[in-house]
Amino acid sequence: MQHNIFATMRSLNMMEGCKGTQVYAFNPSGKTRTTGYGGGGGGSAGEKFLQHLQERVTSVKSKSNRNYQALQPKDNVKSAVLAEALASYGSPQTDLIEPQIESYLKSVNFVETLADVYRRMDSCPQFEMSGMYLEQCAIFKGLSDPKLFRRCLKSGREHAVDVHSKVVLSAWLRFDRREDELIGVSAMDCCGRSIECPRSSLVSGYNPESATDPCTFHQRPIQNEGTEITVGDEECSTSISHDHEDDYDMSFCIGDEEIRCRRFNMASLSRPFEAMLYDGFMESRREKVNFSQNGISAKGMKAAEMFSRTRSVESFDPDTVLELLSLANKFCCIEMKFACDAYLASLVSDMDSAMLLIEYGLEETAYVLVAACLQVLLRELPNSMLNPNVSRLFCSSEGKERLASAGHASFLLYYFLTQTAMEEDMKSNTTVMLLERLGECSNIGWQKQLAFHQLGCVMLERKEYKDAQKWFEAALEAGHVYSLAGIARAKYKRGHMYKAYKLMNSLISDCTPSGWMYQERSLYCRGKEKMMDLSTATELDPTLSYPYKYRAVSMVQENRIEAAISEINRIIGFKISPDCLELRAWFLIALEDYEGALRDVRALLTLDPQYVMFHGKLQGDKLVELLRHTVQQRNQADCWMQLYDRWSCVDDIGSLAVVHHMLANDPGKSLLLFRQSLLLLRLNSHRAAMRSLREARNQATSEHERLVYEGWILYDTGYREEAISKAEESISIQRSFEAFFLKAYVLSETNSDSEASSYVIKLLEEALRCPSDGLRKGQALSNLASIYVDVDKLDNAIDCYMNALNIKHTRAHQGLARVYHLKNQRKAAYDEMTKLIEKASYTASAYEKRSEYCDREMAKSDLRMATKLDPLRTYPYRYKAAVLMDDHKEAEAISELTKVIAFKPDLHLLHLRAAFHDSMGEPTSTIRDCEAALCLDSSHADTLELYSKARQRSNEQQST
Predict the structure, then answer these.
(1) For an engineered disulfide with 646, which of 477, 525, 654, 874 has Cβ 3.0 to 4.6 Å away?
(2) In whole angstroms, what is the distance from residue 94 CA to residue 552 CA?
(3) Quick count: other Cβ atoms within 10 Å of Cβ 645?
(4) Average pLDDT, the chain
(5) What is the Cα–Cα distance from 676 to 225, expressed in whole angstroms?
(6) Which of 240, 195, 239 has its CA nearest to residue 218?
(7) Which pLDDT does position 25 carry in this prediction?
(8) How many CB atoms lie within 10 A of CB 237?
(9) What is the mean pLDDT of residues 730-745?
């Protein structure tokens, strides 16, 4: 099992987001308080507690009127601070914390769902593939790896046929990258890729290959500079050439004006004109036709005559083209309508023009014009929804009908709109109305499941429990079994606890039990039964945070604070989230470990800068300011030393806190923001990492630095070639460590042949010649060593790793161990990993890697420890399953893999289980697991080969 240091530094196995679920809901006054975001300062009681923190209380007199006497505080400072905290904010209470009902599609048999989707995609007509990729998006939304969702979104755009789908998917891709947060980038800018180009989206037709090409419209303005759209009473002359007056054989009379025309040309505009001018009507026998009552001006009719000859509207002003569009609709002039539609669409470039023209487009059902306006509104999300006209158009039933009449109301559109609305404010009326429109646009099973389930989740958040139950029941009727958990929760909130328990109990009995089922049932029971359900939930799915939080808070209520910290550390050790960090910070404050509490609050605010502590009473940054005075003050130089120390100890949370402190001292420092993004990526906090990276780009003080950060943004969102171009452009301006490092990194991920490796080595050597700090140079040395290993230059690799260790890059121990192993020095390799375990705060990967350098029993011990520290690491499960297969314990091997696949449907785990089924002569199970794996990655060569063989074997069995 080879190790790639690059993957360590910039892991893309990232979780979808870090939305904080507040863990405090106790109100000393006895009034009900809503948990979650909101609120301001902590009031007088809170200020009193904060004063205690600042003054480091030396003695506190006992007061009989405190409402926390049940805890019986001891007569010491620690008890006084804890008691004051409880009095001011209320301690975490087990009865008032609960897990959220997830708002995405969740299958009770995820592997079967993946396999079914792959089978349907495999036989799906090409023109319908875009819809299948959208279904995949909905399924992958609940997974921790955002690359899967984005890849499906890109595939959906590549296979889109109609303009509407292209417009929505392109806007969604742009929104997913949050490009709107980049200073100097406007909504309609072309980023150079056809797949997201606003002008490419307005071109109809199916060509999936061209979607990935460089954009042909790149750097061309949507509208010529200086062009101003005015629609109304402005006078504008229409230039008409009368070179062939003798050819005119009729006239249209409008008021006192006479517009000379050729009968044949005008008849060619449409079948109604042809019938009027040739098919026996009175007009067919007249040289002059009165056209005054048809709602078109003389200027407009002159333009229509010109169009009948030139088939172009380019020379007309927008007001005239709008008249022609209306005439085209009345008289079914298809070619003229298309020309007007396309011309007006080309004028749409910003919110002002979009809002001006969309009403005309909807009124005249101008498909491309409405698409162009819709594109601007979508690319300006979420800000465009602040416009009441936009909100009314999207949210109301009437608005949806108007969009539908123009061909622009779809499940896809409202799916995108609801996702942006739910991110902004899940409980808003806007979110509810958009979800109602989504439900109206739902045609097939999975669409109804999603729309109704999300409506249930929103109503639950709004505490409208009767409506929540109704929508969850509708989702269940549509086939979404997970919505039973929503029904149970709504019943529980309405006071029917026993009914909720029975509902979850029947679900556990009827289905293959999952961790979330036992977690949900635990809410509806007490005592030992509850703790047993929570224990089973953790056993089946160790990634669920609620059981750890509940157990930790229970321990606090028993005055076992150290045990509570140990319990919450179990989940924080492999899955960092704001709510768990908040809980640990509270415990640490109770123990008067203000340094540790400050560390956790700083890390928490890096994940979510707007987080509000203590059930919405205290802004996190204010708590930082107050805790800061209770610990040793550090200047920027001290912080750099501390960062080196934390980085060397592989303490990513500690490093994150130090960087947060340094940014407070030196706000807007792009280098620190970039370092922050790297740490967040290592902690699988992709969304927060990208936010930091975008901010680093915005704060960059030089062009070459800005280009580097743009390159990383492109790389992290799947555009590798563009990332390399940014690095090269940066190098052309100024040679820098980060530019060379970026180019080397992306190339090493893209190509692995010897020629490419030699080039990457040269790039990294150039990077090391440029100025940088030891932290980054240590990483570059490790990356360089890794490439040397790949090209079998082991002595060079050792030198690099040793140099990295000399500047305290502790992770180099792992690479050095790999080299020793390749040189058949297993004892030396084992010792290197032991050194890493002794130095590092996070050691799960070190235990996993050390297992490769020892005998079977010691390896089992190390892998057990790795799984205990981080149950998301898949290698220990694969190793254990392989050992069981070697011992001919096939059923146990498959059971081992099944257990982890239930909470981590990993490609390699599915492939391995498929191979095990194949070796046991079970083609049906082999095919199912292969299909599930290929749904995650349709190009995985080993799985494709196994799938082909299994299908062939299955066909042979059926034929016999």
Answers:
(1) 654
(2) 9
(3) 14
(4) 87
(5) 40
(6) 195
(7) 35
(8) 9
(9) 97
CA-CA distance, 548 to 534, in Å (whole number)?
9
The separation between CA 668 and the C-alpha centre of its own chain, rounded to angstroms, equals 25
- Model pLDDT for residues 195-238, shown as the tens digit of each residue: 888 888 998 888 777 766 777 665 444 443 334 555 554 444 44
Single out the residue of 741, 775, 738 nearest to residue 648, CA to CA.
775
- The answer to whether the Cα torsion of 195, 196, 197, 199 is positive or negative is positive
Tokens 């089992």 locate to 860
Collapsing DSSP to helix, strand or coil, 23 comes out as coil
pLDDT digits (tens, 9 = 90+) for 258-281: 999 998 999 999 998 888 888 777
Task: Specify the 3-state DSSP secondary structure of 259.
Answer: strand
Which helix H or strand E contains 347, and what residues bound it? none
Helix (H, G, I), strand (E, B) or coil at 250: strand
- Judge whether 629 and 54 are in contact, CB under 8 Å: yes
Tokens of 149: 């969702």
The predicted-structure confidence for 620-662, as pLDDT tens digits, reads as follows: 888 888 888 888 888 999 999 999 999 999 999 999 999 999 9
Phi-psi region of 295 (alpha: psi -120 to 50; beta: other; left: phi over 0): left
From 825, 891, 889, 894, select the one nearest 853 (Cα to Cα).
825
Q: CA 410, CA 134: separation in Å to the nearest integer?
A: 12
Check if the beta carbon of residue 537 is closer than 8 Å to that of residue 544: yes
Please calculate the CA angle 208-209-215 and round it to the nearest 5 degrees.
100
Contact, 223 vs 347, CB < 8 A?
Answer: yes
Cα separation, 534 vs 528, in Å, equals: 10
The pTM is what? 0.87
Backbone angles phi, psi at 824, to 5 degrees: 60, 30
CA distance 879 to 884: 9
Task: Map residue 618 onto helix, strand or coil.
Answer: strand
User: Whole-angstrom distance between the N-terminal and C-terminal Cα of the chain?
Assistant: 41
- In contact, 591 and 556? CB cutoff 8 Å: no
Cα angle: 189, vertex 194, 199; to 5 degrees: 55
Instruction: Please choose, from the candidates 275, 354, 342, 257, the residue with its C-alpha nearest in 3D space to the C-alpha of residue 307.
Output: 342
Collapsed DSSP state (helix, strand, coil) of residue 417: helix
HSE (CB half, 13 Å, CA atoms) of 657?
Answer: 21
Tokens coding 290 = 């009165």
Question: Distance between CA 187 and CA 179 in Å, rounded?
Answer: 8
C-alpha to C-alpha distances, 614 to 27, 451, 566, 626, nearest whole angstrom: 10, 33, 21, 14
Encoded tokens for 860: 């089992």
Tokens of 385: 């929804």
Query: Are the beta carbons of 530 and 507 closer than 8 angstroms?
Result: no
Element at 253 (helix H, strand E): strand 250-254
Gap between the Cα atoms of 949 and 761, Å rounded: 40
The string over 317-354, giving b where at least 16 C-beta atoms fall within 10 Å of a residue's C-beta and e elsewhere, is bbbbbbbbbbbbbebebeebbebbbbbbbbbbbbbebb
Q: Which two tokens stand for residue 807?
A: 């500047």
Give the closest residue to 97 by CA, choosing from 164, 158, 151, 20. Answer: 20
Opening angle at CA 301, ends 299 and 303, nearest 5: 75
Give the distance from CA 908 to its chain's centroid.
23
What letter would DSSP give residue 247? G
Distance separating alpha carbons of residues 111 and 877, to the nearest angstrom:
18
- Say if CB 363 and CB 403 are below 8 A apart: no
**Nearest to residue 338, comparing CAs of 369, 309, 363?**
369
Q: Is 455 helix (H, G, I), strand (E, B) or coil?
A: helix
Helix 720-733 vs helix 737-750: angle between axes, to the nearest 10 degrees?
A: 150
3-state secondary structure of 685: strand
74-81: long-range contacts (C-beta < 8 A, 24 or more apart)? Answer: 77/592, 78/590, 78/591, 78/592, 80/52, 81/49, 81/52, 81/53, 81/57, 81/589, 81/590, 81/592
Query: Any residues with CB less than 8 A from the CB of 851 and at least 6 apart, and which?
Result: 858, 859, 860, 862, 863, 866, 876, 879
